[in-house]
Design goal:
8-stranded mixed beta barrel, 29 helices, 4 domains, Beta-Lactamase, alpha+beta, 6-stranded antiparallel sheet, binds ligand LFPHGCPZ, elongated, Alpha-Beta Plaits
């Protein structure tokens, strides 16, 4: 029910002339377009991703904020830890160095008191020496040679050391207060690396007297390294003011000698920087040691200090990423769903627009009707919601005027013709209803319409189609299917139908009816002789005449060809009562008819049956009428015969004969088949040259040897074989057998003999005749010139053009043709001229009375003369007497055939006759 509303929007604006450029759309339309565009922009699949950007950005801003806070906190903590470590380390080192310096001072005092060698024993005794395992103390003379040490150590000369030179070269004895610190080194007295702390010793005069030394393992200065504080890659270093590390520990590894730019280091923890060459960034702090040329350096590894921060950062980033992905996925899914929805809506809109356009362009009238309900809920009427232009044409009410109106008020007749009830039924029960009716109201009055009603939500859609043309065509087709095209009379199927109805009617009312089969006598002559058009004209005239003899409720029909049928209803149960009308018909048909300026005359043979005496069903009645009609034909034509029971015997006989023919053909073609109906065989009748008396050819004639009835003559079965079509297969067998036999005689040395074969009309008209003849010749090996086909004159006249064409094909193959029974047909001289024939055969009916009948003599002479003028040979058949032969010879007939020379005989006898003839020829030649 949504489509029509769209149709409204699609329709051109009222009043806009066709073919003119559209004017500026009205403001309302522009506003509608703007609204559509805005709606499009607000579609969820566009707006949602845009809005989703906000939380996405918020998530990441918050994440980076937290990370930054964490980072600053971590940096601050690292700075504080470094500062604390520096403080601690500085305090430790200050204590250690003060202790070392104290030792140096005690030794210096003792040397000054007790001399260089006596000082250490005195101190040892007093317990003032540090444990020798950790700290070695020694005293040198003014030349730098170690003169006393605790514990004792090998001789050592330190005069080359810079710290010794520094002490020695000091002028001012007061300057001796500053201790010196060596680089970490190994010497000849002690291989382990160690540091020398030294003080100058003066003699009583204040002159340089040597130095006091304390040697310390560098590891001693970094032993305060704790993993829990400094980590695995933290750094503790004791560095000289010259920037050279005296002791440096990273993790568990102690080393020395590295250069550390302590001047660049802040005294406090600061941003991480590379401070040693091991490539690890550290937060580093430095503090100079008061009273010593040394500084302490503490470094905390950046990675270790920021490890927790890094872990938190990873967690924050993962959480933000997860949340973002979730958001994107949710938004993506909702957008995709919304996009699909929008697409479906667009498709629906498009379909609606297409539907609206199509319905407007439709040749069918379309009504979209909304139910109007009564208080009890039943459909009381329908309101027009939408229609198309075609609906306007059909109702005569403008399309726009119909919208919103009640059907009952607009088309009141729809309540009277069942339309409303149908619409209401579909509206309530659903389904589809289809009805055809003839409109009674204007403007479609008289036209055939078809409506289809389909339920939709809240109403129905009615489609109305004008089917008048279809109805007329159907009527035409129905008429054609039941009427004969030529005469317009009922055809076989309608006659059968009417007969069935008539029999039922007669049965019900106890009435009688009569059925007559009518076959025209002599129609074939007119049709063959004057052509099909003449035949058609004759049929129409005769049909009209018969019709004129009948009452209105009688039926005249044409079964086909020249066969008609008459159905007379409600007749008296007395054949004699029918005689007047039958006689009237007979006479009417027998009146001459002018066709193409020529008067032609035909008769009719009628077979009449009556219901119920001659049959109580249509089939029996028709069969018996046919039998009666044949009896009328047999009895000399142009008469009518009432059916008697004896007539059926001949019909049955025909059926038996036909069955026998089929079996005989089967048995003939298949030597192994049982021969219940006998077999066919050929006999040959010699053809003789009238002048020389020599046999030059034979005519092949078929015979049927029936196991019960003996020899059945061709006139008894050739006609039936023709009628049933069996003649085609039988004829093929005759041609093949005759060719084979002729070739056998040739092979036996009986040269020069031709064989003639009769070809019937059905055979001649069969498409494959030429092919069949060619096959017979090829299979047998007989030269085509040795075969002659005999065709009757009337056969050729059935379809002249086709006959000439077929004869030419056979002639082109080399086969000869002759016209059989010449004189009995109606061939025109011009037609005869066009036939590619070689022989004319005078029919035996003209030969029989040749001796006595001057008419027959005249005909025979005319045929001979005509033949010779057309350069044809002439043969006379049925020559039984010498008078007949003499007459023919005297009048230059060329050949003869008949009992006088020989009846048809079997092939063996022909062989003997040919052999005799050959002997006679030899004797004549010899004699
Ligand atoms: N389509 C085919 N038609 C055939 C074939 N074989 C025969 N026929 C046609 O049947 C008709 C009768 O034939 P048949 O009974 O064989 O009679 C032929 C001769 O026996 C008979 N005849 C010959 N000489 C005489 C005579 O001196 N007197 C006399 N009363 N009858 C005689 O004439 C018939 C031959 O006639 P035609 O063919 O016109 O030369 C007949 O119409 C045959 O054509 C067949 O195989 N196919």
């Amino acid at each position: 029910m949504t489509a029509p509303s769209t149709a409204q929007t699609l329709a051109p604006p009222a009043g806009q002339p066709l073919g003119q450029p559209p004017a500026q759309p009205p403001a309302s339309e522009r506003a509608a377009r703007r609204a559509r565009r805005l709606r499009g922009a607000l579609e969820t699949y566009i707006s949602l991703p845009l809005f989703a950007l906000l939380p996405l950005v918020a998530i990441w801003i918050a994440t980076f904020h937290f990370i930054d806070v964490e980072r600053n906190a971590a940096l601050g903590a690292a700075r504080d830890a470094t500062r604390e470590q520096v403080d601690t380390y500085e305090a430790q080192m200050a204590r250690n160095l003060t202790a070392i310096d104290q030792t140096l001072k005690v030794i210096k005092y003792a040397v000054e008191m007790n001399g260089a060698t006596g000082a250490l024993p005195v101190l040892r005794r007093q317990g003032l020496l540090p444990p020798g395992l950790v700290i070695v103390v020694s005293v040198t003379d003014r030349d730098g040679k170690v003169v006393a040490s605790n514990p004792a150590m090998p001789a050592l000369d330190v005069s080359g050391q810079s710290f010794f030179a520094t002490h020695r070269d000091l002028e001012d004895g007061s300057a001796a207060g500053a201790p010196q610190v060596s680089h970490t080194l190994s010497d000849s007295a002690r291989a382990e690396p160690h540091l020398h702390f030294s003080r100058r010793i003066n003699d009583a005069d204040g002159h340089f007297a040597g130095i006091a030394m304390v040697e310390v393992d560098p590891a001693y200065f970094t032993s305060s390294y704790e993993h829990s504080r400094e980590g695995e890659r933290g750094l503790l270093a004791l560095v000289g003011n010259d920037g050279v590390a005296r002791a440096l520990r990273v993790g568990d590894k102690v080393s020395w000698g590295q250069h550390i730019a302590i001047d660049g280091l802040p005294g406090d923890a600061a941003e991480p920087r590379l401070i040693i060459p091991d490539g690890v960034p550290r937060y580093a702090g430095m503090r100079r040691l008061h009273g010593f040329p040394l500084a302490v350096v503490v470094g905390l590894a950046h990675g270790e200090q920021m490890a927790q921060y890094q872990q938190h950062r990873g967690t924050y980033l993962a959480a933000a990423l997860g949340a973002s992905l979730l958001l994107v996925a949710v938004v993506g899914l909702v957008s995709a769903w919304s996009w699909q929805l929008a697409k479906a809506r667009r498709r629906e809109r498009h379909a609606q627009e297409t539907y609206a356009a199509a319905s407007e362009a439709s040749l069918d009238a379309i009504f979209v009707l909304r139910n109007v309900l009564a208080t009890d809920g039943a459909v009381a009427d329908f309101m027009v919601e939408e229609t198309n232009s075609r609906a306007g044409q059909l109702t005569g009410i403008a399309k726009d005027a119909m919208r919103g109106r009640l059907m009952g008020e607009m088309l009141p007749f729809y309540r009277g013709n069942g339309m409303f009830e149908e619409l209401a039924r579909v509206a309530q029960d659903g389904g589809v209803a289809e009805t055809e009716w003839q409109a009674a109201a204007q403007p479609a009055s008289g036209r055939w319409l078809q409506r289809q009603v389909v339920r939709v939500e809240g109403g129905v859609v009615v489609t109305i189609r004008d089917i008048t043309e279809r109805k007329l065509t159907e009527e035409r087709i129905r008429h054609m299917a039941h009427h004969d095209e030529l005469t317009g009379l009922p055809n076989r199927s309608l006659i059968r139908d009417r007969l069935e109805q008539a029999v039922k009617h007669a049965q019900r009312h106890g009435n009688c009816l009569a059925l007559a089969f009518v076959d025209l006598d002599g129609f074939k002559l007119v049709n063959d002789g004057l052509g099909h058009n003449a035949g058609d004209e004759l049929l129409k005239v005769v049909g009209g005449r018969m019709q004129a003899c009948l009452r209105r409720n009688d039926t005249l029909g044409r079964l086909g060809g020249d066969e008609f049928v008459i159905l007379l209803q409600d007749v008296a149960d007395d054949p004699l009562a029918l005689a007047p009308v039958l006689e009237k018909i007979r006479q009417a048909v027998g009146e001459p008819v002018m066709i193409a300026g020529q008067a032609v005359q035909v008769g009719c043979s009628m077979g009449v049956v009556m219901y119920p005496r001659d049959g109580d069903d249509p089939k029996t009645l028709m069969m018996n009428a046919d039998a009666a009609m044949y009896r009328a034909k047999d009895l000399g034509k142009h008469n009518f015969q009432f059916y008697t029971r004896e007539m059926n015997a001949s019909v049955e006989e025909k059926l038996v004969l036909l069955e026998g023919l089929r079996k005989a053909l089967e048995a003939t073609l298949d030597a192994d088949a049982p021969a219940h109906a006998g077999r066919f065989h050929l006999v040959y009748q010699p053809k003789v040259d009238l002048r020389t008396g020599r046999m030059f050819g034979v005519e092949a004639l078929i015979r049927w040897r029936h196991p019960e009835h003996g020899l059945v003559p061709p006139p008894r079965f050739i006609g039936l074989a023709e009628e049933s079509g069996l003649i085609v297969a039988i004829g093929e067998w005759v041609v093949r057998s005759a060719c084979r036999q002729a070739q056998a005689w040739r092979a036996a040395g009986l040269e020069g003999l031709t064989v003639s074969v009769n070809v019937s009309a059905r055979q001649f008209e069969e498409k494959r005749l030429v092919e069949r003849v060619a096959n017979a010749l090829r299979e047998s090996g007989l030269p085509p010139s040795a075969l002659e086909l005999e065709v009757t004159e009337s056969l050729l006249m059935r379809d002249l053009n086709q006959a000439v064409e077929r004869m030419r094909e056979l002639k082109a193959m080399g086969v000869s043709l002759s016209i059989d029974d010449f004189g009995t047909g109606y061939s025109s001289l011009s037609a005869l001229k066009s036939f590619p024939i070689s022989t004319l055969k005078i029919d035996k009916s003209f030969v029989r009375d040749l001796a006595d009948s001057t008419d027959d003599q005249a005909i025979a002479l005319a045929v001979i003369s005509l033949g010779h003028r057309l350069n044809l040979r002439v043969i006379a058949e049925g020559v039984e007497t010498e008078q007949q032969r003499d007459f023919l010879l005297a009048h230059e007939c060329d050949e003869m055939q008949g009992y006088l020379f020989s009846a048809p005989v079997d092939a063996e006898r022909i062989g003997e006759m040919l052999a005799q003839q050959a002997r006679r020829d030899r004797m004549r030649l010899a004699g």
